[in-house]
Design goal:
CATH class of the largest domain: Alpha Beta
Number of domains: 2
Protein name: (R,R)-butanediol dehydrogenase/meso-butanediol dehydrogenase/diacetyl reductase
Distance between the termini: 10 Å
CATH topology of the largest domain: Quinone Oxidoreductase, Chain A, domain 1
Shape: globular
Number of helices: 10
Helix content: 25-40%
GO molecular function, one term: (R,R)-butanediol dehydrogenase activity
CATH superfamily of the largest domain: Medium-chain alcohol dehydrogenases, catalytic domain
Keywords: Metal-binding, Oxidoreductase, Zinc
Domain Enoyl reductase (ER): 7-353
EC number: 1.1.1.-, 1.1.1.303, 1.1.1.4
Largest sheet: 7 strands, mixed
Strand content: 25-35%
């Protein structure tokens, strides 16, 4: 079968590889991937990896490089093991890609995303979404309603990251929010804030193409260039009594962005860290103390959020497909996918790869 495989830094190949062989295990699900998103994690692997893709066998899954990529995807169920009861052949599904023990410390508490043995389909699993076939566990598949399209189903995974940030920030009807950074997760967080009922949303983004996208996604959002505007001062001008926003969500993973959020949030407000930092950040801890703020750090998402997001999408509350800017065939995955997303112009936000 055809598959997109990551071998090493700047080395992604479209190759013919053996598909799944032999009888399925009791809890296995054989799937045909449909469309698959290129994630920021995939980009990090391409530019600086291997990082989370294992050069040596993964401690839990046993997977190792080369790795079939793809963890944001929709699929059709082709066959199931005899113990599988949640899906059947012909079902359309969204993949929840996290793989972990069900019975370790975190698994017993339902915190599967925090397991020290965590693996991920498309990153540290034998299979991924950028291929013609894959095998996953029964807990990795969620049957989507008819009202959810294949593209929307593929977008549930990154939407889960964004919604988790909104939940951890306590965004609710009437909240005031600052979003720092409008990459794909920032854009989905913007949509999630509006779905949660935030009344004032300020977006700080230096890229003009992405600022324009923010205006299209949520027309009444206040969008500023942090290189041209003092973000904290702008927030004070647009908040009650100049106190700042209730919640500031950091979606970039940069020191300056994190500190900007701490300055912009009101006393007793919350700063949510979503962007992944690649180096230690110097922060003003005394400012955090003086303002009595809460810092919420997030990792992935609770794996149980799929039905909630699917329901929001089906109801028209969470138009996740609005950030998809291109859909490509596998043979163009590097030139029209990875390289396009690394283009500093930011013309493309989310690119999907047709898997079959």
């Amino acid at each position: 079968m055809r598959a997109v495989r990551f071998h090493d830094r700047r080395d992604i190949r479209v190759e013919d590889v053996p598909g799944p062989q032999g009888p399925l295990k009791d809890g296995d699900v054989l799937i045909r991937p449909i469309v698959c998103g290129i994630c920021g994690t995939d980009l990090h692997e391409y530019v600086a990896g291997p990082i989370v893709t294992p050069a040596e066998p993964h401690r839990y899954t046993g997977a190792r490089l080369p790795q079939i990529l793809g963890h944001e995807f929709s699929a059709e169920v082709l066959d199931t093991g005899k113990a599988v009861t949640n899906v059947r052949p012909g079902d359309r599904v969204s993949i929840q890609p996290l793989v972990s023990p069900r019975d370790d410390y975190y698994g017993r508490r339902g915190l599967f995303h925090l397991s020290e043995n965590l693996g991920c389909v498309g990153l540290s699993w034998a299979w991924g979404g950028m291929a013609e076939r894959a095998v996953v566990n029964d807990y990795n598949v969620f049957k989507v309603p008819d009202a959810v399209s294949d593209v929307q189903a593929a977008m549930i995974e990154p939407a889960a990251v964004a919604l988790y940030a909104v939940d951890r920030g306590g965004v609710q009807a009437g909240s005031t929010v600052l979003l720092s950074g409008l990459g794909p997760i920032g854009a989905l967080t913007l949509l999630a804030c509006r779905a949660a009922g935030a009344s004032t949303i300020i977006v700080a983004e230096p890229n003009p193409n992405r600022r324009a996208l923010a205006g299209r996604l949520v027309p009444d959002a206040l969008v500023v260039d942090p290189k041209a505007v003092d973000v904290a001062a702008f927030v004070r001008e647009h908040s009650e009594d100049g106190v700042g926003v209730d919640v500031a969500i950091e979606c970039v993973g940069l020191e300056a962005s994190l500190n900007s959020c701490a300055k912009a949030v009101r006393r007793r407000g919350r700063v949510v860290q979503v962007g992944l930092h690649t180096r230690p950040a110097a922060i003003d801890a005394m400012l955090w103390a003086l303002k009595d703020i809460t810092i919420e750090a997030t990792w992935c998402y609770p794996t149980t959020v799929w039905p909630r997001i699917a329901g929001m999408i089906a109801a028209g509350l969470y138009p996740v497909e609005a950030i998809v800017t291109s859909t490509i065939d596998p043979e163009h995955v590097v030139a029209r996918g990875f390289d396009e997303l690394l283009d500093p112009s930011g013309r493309n936000m989310k690119i999907l790869v047709r898997s079959s």
